[in-house]
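Hi C.,

You asked whether I'd gotten around to modeling the 158-residue construct. I have! Everything is below, sequence then structure, no commentary in between.
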Amino acid sequence: MIEILEKFIVPGLKYLPPEMDSPQVRAMLLSIGMQESRFEHRKQVGGPAHGFWQFEQGGGVRGIITHPTTSEIARGICKRLVVPFIPAECYEAITYNDVLACCFARLLLWTLSGPLAGKGENQKAWEQYSAAWRPGKPHRESWDAYFNTAWLSLKEEL
């Protein structure tokens, strides 16, 4: 998990305003990546989603691009990463651009109201993940282990 943090979560968060980074953010990004792809699949097995956080073009990607609180931030990130600010282009780019995918995942969490779940708040974290990602086939039984692993990884990072 430390490698994932160092390779694309920490670098991705540097493209965002400083208030978008916190231990809660990092724990959620790690947990969601593990839940969605195990950080193994850049394209959803048997589905249309792309990137480690598994975004669909008409869902999360379009949502980030059009949401009033994330659109301009996403536009700036795409400009800096030389990715056209068009849903189809962003969708393709997040397949292999892990920094962009991380930024989009963080921006999707930014659309939620209230603070993100903290350590030990597994149910709240699950509810936030479910509200933002709206998984078609949710697997609640694996979430707690991923969320706890994420927090342990953060302890190692500090």
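If it helps when you're writing up: The chain has one domain: 2-157.

Thanks,
B.
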